[in-house]
Amino acid sequence: MKSPASFKKAAAWALPYWTRGQAGRETPQDLFRVLYFGWLVALTLKLLGSAWDVSWHFKWLRDDLAPPHLLNSAGTALVVVLTVVHGYTGYGVDKAALRLIQWGTGIFLVAVPLDLINHRVNGLDITSWSPSHIMLYVGTFFMIAGVIRGWFMGAPPGRERTVVLGAFFAFFLENMHFPEQHQEYGVLSLGAWDNHATYAEPILLRFAADQMGRPIDRVMMSGFTLPVPDYLYPVYAVVAVLSVLVAARLMIGRFGAATLVAGAYVGFRTLIWPLLTFGGFPPSAVPFFFVVAGLLVDLAFLVRVPAVRAVVGVAAVTAGAYGALVVQSAVMGSVYGAIKGQTGLYGSPPLVTSSALWAGLGLLAVWLAAEWVAGRRERRAQPIEARVIATATP
User: Fold this and answer.
1) What keywords would UniProt list here (predicted)?
2) CA distance 67 to 23
């Protein structure tokens, strides 16, 4: 515990910075680092709370003041403090980053009471895909996107910039994938029921059964553990998760970036798995196939064909589209294969192979958008003379 003298020293250091300013003002590097390491602490608290929260809700009846909620709330409180500091002082963010952080935090704070009202009106919220929960994910999406932009634009080049950027993308990946943990916990909980065992407490099963108007049987358990269509898990995993890994590879700009971001998240899930199960909480399937997806994204960037660069004619755009189609098809097929392999070896939510068409189309759109962004950045980085030559080339 820090002494009063330490707090006074910290206050004396911070007080001169507490001045009104516009976003984008020059930020001293020591203050910049304090702000963004504060974000790392806040997002870590939210990560630990959310990781515990899913397992908690597969065991106990919901409680507003459950320990996972309190842990997440501590992170949210720090998020609010940092958002106010950025907004008032203008330090550490440009206008775009500040707007993303403010909108994201605002959406999240609005979603919290709406979620509480939803539970009061509808009782147990069977799925993590409910509208109020989706608002929480959307708010966190914009919030972390703003943090990523702020760090990306303001951190000096070097190892620390790369490592922290990767950490923020790992938090971003966790938020994007979070709703799918319902299926990852659900498939093992349903399997336990089939083996004449249950992870959930009787009060939770009774409440869920009463809400569905059914006895406690397999149909009820299936509705409780896997309440969304089976095709949703692989399609969402391919499109949403790979979009984060593609963005991470683009912004970090190094081979292995996507693999390390995916590996960091999978490593965290692997670490907390025994901690939760030894504490008596239900286990979950861990998405080990994310590491395969990350490696494939890194490899794909070695052979990718930029889809849109300078205005050089339809041929280049067409070639880029075909290149993206080939790359994303190979990546999508390999990820589906990895999910299938994991299902047989360790366990994974049900895989509907026919959904590969929709996953492929979604991933193609993401890949083309990523190529367009990459081409736009390259064009901006070119000298004016090079752009003119590229435009004039037949």
Assistant:
1) Membrane, Transmembrane, Transmembrane helix
2) 36
Residues 155 and 219 both lie in one domain:
yes
Interacting residues of 121 by C-beta distance below 8 A, sequence separation 6+: none
Angle at 57 between CA 54 and CA 60, to 5 degrees: 145
Q: Measured between alpha carbons, how far is 47 from 178 in angstroms, rounded to an integer?
A: 10
Question: Domain check: are 178 and 237 in the same one?
Answer: no
389: in domain: no
Task: Give the integer Cα–Cα distance in Å for 7 and 13.
Answer: 10
Statement to judge: residues 350 and 301 lie in one domain: yes
In this structure, which amino acid lies at residue 218?
R
The string over 179-207, giving b where at least 16 C-beta atoms fall within 10 Å of a residue's C-beta and e elsewhere, is: bbbbbbbbbbbbebbeeeebbbeeebbeb
Query: Which range scores top for mean pLDDT: 149-153, 297-301, 354-358?
Result: 149-153
Task: Clarify whether residues 291 and 159 are in a common domain.
Answer: no
Number of Cβ within 10 Å of residue 80's Cβ equals 14
Cα–Cα dist 129/227, whole Å: 9
Calculate mean pLDDT across residues 125-150: 90
The Cα 110–Cα 128 span in angstroms is 17
Nearest residue to 358 via CA among 342, 340, 336:
336
What HEC string does 276-304 produce?
HHHCCCCCCCCCCHHHHHHHHHHHHHHHC
CB 287 within 8 A of CB 177: yes
* CA–CA separation, 61 and 56 (whole Å): 8
Give the tens place of pLDDT for each residue, 249-295: 989 989 999 999 999 999 999 999 888 888 888 888 899 889 988 98
- Is 2 a domain residue? no
165 in Cβ contact with 148 (< 8 Å):
yes
Residue 35 sits in which domain range? 25-227
What is the model's pTM? 0.87
Cβ 253 vs Cβ 265: under 8 Å = no
Query: What is the count of structural domains for the chain?
Result: 2
Report yes or no: 262 and 245 within 8 Å, Cβ to Cβ: yes
State whether residue 256 is helix, strand or coil: coil
User: Do 234 and 221 have their domain in common?
Assistant: no
